[in-house]
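ingest -> validate -> predict -> emit
validate: passed (alphabet ok, no gaps, 133 aa)
predict: started
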Amino acid sequence: GNKVQMMPQTDKKIPVFLTGFAQSSISWIAQHGGGWIQYPKPPQDQAQLINDYRNLIIKNNNEQFKPFTQTLYIDLNEDPNQLPEPIPLGFRLGRNRLRELLYQYKDIGVNHLAFVAYFARIPVKDIIDKLDE
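emit:
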């Protein structure tokens, strides 16, 4: 068969991030993954998943830091204080509420968060400008 060859060559283990459950158990992900990319959930639900993940890393006698990452679909509203309304895999909300939500995710242990503007009704540049206000 065909062999895959990495270039440049390295003698170090390259961390592999798993997405979702990758048809695996959370225990396997905690033991074998270099990090975890998970789909968005409300902070209270994501907190339990992150807690379980971190505890399993410790249980496997692994002291290596393994980041937890998630995506978040956003649609910013003109009203900066609009409360979050669910959209698929995220929220329609105002920029001030988004900031609050980001702090909630940080507080529960989300290390990286990737915005997805698929459902956004305004251009991405405008979203970035609004977040800067």
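The longest strand covers residues 68-76.
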